[in-house]
Amino acid sequence: MALSTIALKAQVAEATASALFAPKLLIKTNLASYYWLSVNANYEQKVGPKMTVGLLGGYKLPSTLHVDAIGNLDGEKQTYTGDIEPQGLYANPYYRFYPREAFHGFYVEAFLRYFNYSYLVPYDYEKNNGTIHANLDGTASGMGGGLGIGIPFDLASRVFLDFNLGYGMAMGEAHVETNDPNLEPADYQTIKTNIEQYEDDADAQVFLLGEVLTDPEAYGYSNSAEAFFRDKVFPIVRGGVSIGVAF
Fold first, then answer.
1. Domain 23-246 CATH assignment equals 3.40.91
2. How far is C-alpha 157 from the geometric centre of its chain's CA atoms?
3. Where do the structural domains in the chain lie, given as residue ranges?
4. Is the sign of the CA dihedral 30, 33, 37, 38 positive or negative?
5. Residue 36, by phi and psi: left (phi above 0), alpha (psi -120 to 50) or beta?
6. I need a labelling partner for 60 at 20 to 30 A (CA). Which of 4, 184, 189, 212 fits?
7. Under a CB-based contact definition with an 8 Å cutoff, are residues 165 and 205 in contact?
8. Strand ordering across the sheet containing 211-213
9. Which of 87, 107, 79, 78 is nearest to 95 (CA)?
10. Minimal CA–CA distance to 49: which of 13, 94, 108, 103?
11. pTM reported for the whole predicted model
12. 83-97 pLDDT, tens per residue?
């Protein structure tokens, strides 16, 4: 009995020490995001034996995306092609449940996503027997959420490699505006009229940042013209390969 009591106390002391010095948080970065020129940091905090909460935040550096605008106006197919370089902030708060133990083994995740990007849309137009090169000033933002799964692997003591993948839905809006000094008030009204014609055409579609945006709201002023794409629902994908250190 004495030997059993000593062994039991040793086991309890070992378990207490293990729990006391077990990692409580992870600092990581998503390696896959750097392919899209997104600098990021990921903080994950243990809040229970099998639960964690975290925040992935980053900044998307300018990188080229191709844009196509396609429509059918007055019986003729209208097309525009160009490149944009969106940049801006994004954030992913999340909650994870590990059936085995926090930071170890398979987990399921619920996440939110927010982003706010800015970009320029280049275009050309003819005026006074010449071609003028200009840019639309654009912004795009959205917020949504979804579910994901993942699994971390121990690379070394307190060094983890985390694979995760998730899918969800978001709602967002986009805005483009031109205030080119080479244009006149009549030109801005013409731009507004053209956008409204596309708005009334069921075949008009604008592919922006990988999503299909339709039904713009157009406005023309004395020194600018703009269009809004509001309350657009689109899918979001979350995933990557993260490496980090536990503390």
1. no
2. 32
3. 23-246
4. negative
5. alpha
6. 212
7. no
8. 76-84, 65-73, 205-208, 211-213
9. 107
10. 103
11. 0.79
12. 778 899 999 999 999
